[in-house]
Amino acid sequence: MSRGYKIVRLDFVIDEIGEEETRQYLSDFESPLNKDVEAFLQYKAIEFSKQGIAKTHLVIASYQNKDRIAGYFALSGNKVFVVKAKSKAITAKMKSRISRFGQYDANLKQYYISAPLIGQLGKNYRYPTLITGNELLGIACKIIQSIQLDIGGKFAYLECEPVPKLREFYGCNGFIEFGERELDGDERGFQHQTLVQMLKYLG
Questions:
Q1: CB-CB neighbours of 130 under 10 Å
Q2: Which residues have CB under 8 Å from 51's CB, separation 6+?
Q3: What's the pLDDT at 203?
């Protein structure tokens, strides 16, 4: 991996040093601009990993001769999402790709697509120079590509709050907005009532 990053699954860290020491290790992560990202890693990631809901990957880099968490991302198993056939957000080229990998419902005029979900993504602002957001997202997409060599598929999927900076960040990294969904009843902690749906073709 470029710049000496190590990608370690949280499960392996727990097996190696135990759950309590893992929690202490994760407490070194800070994200003052997005407390939800920080709270997930410190309070939810271990349980989600144990239950198989989402698998967290830590991106490790050396800082003052010690391994530090530069950032992390959490991946969930294939999620099925809907893309309207007449969506103006999708180019003709993307529609062609979707038609090859999605299941089309002629009555509803929409495609059903299955792809891994990037559920969480965050860099550690305690050591802000260790990795960029672009590098972190790129690593997450490469992991998905590797997984899809075995299970098939060509898309990555994510949802983000309708915040201009987030939309711009993902858009600059090749993700396309295609829809928006309302929050489910059990979803908490968001400032908005909807999430923007985005996908990327991993060619």
A1: 22
A2: none
A3: 84
pLDDT at residue 90 in the model: 87
Q: What are phi and psi of 133, to 5 degrees?
A: -60, -40
- Burial label, 101 (beta-carbon count in 10 A; 0-12, 13-18, 19+): middle
Q: What is the b/e burial string over 137-150, where b = at least 16 CB atoms within 10 angstroms of the residue's CB?
A: bebbbebbeeebee
Kindly state the DSSP code that residue 9 receives in the 8-state scheme: E
pLDDT means over runs of 10, the chain (203 residues) = 82 96 97 93 96 96 94 94 90 91 94 95 96 97 95 95 95 96 72 90 92
Q: For residue 17, what are the contacts with CB-CB under 8 A and spacing of at least 6?
A: 25
The token duo for 133 is 């957001």
User: 73: which strand partners?
Assistant: 57, 121
The sign one gets for the Cα dihedral 140, 156, 133, 195 is: negative
Distance CA 74, CA 31 (A): 15
Quote the CA–CA distance of 174 and 105 in Å, as a whole number: 26
Instruction: Please tell me the distance from the alpha carbon of residue 198 to that of residue 124, in angstroms, as a whole number.
Output: 24
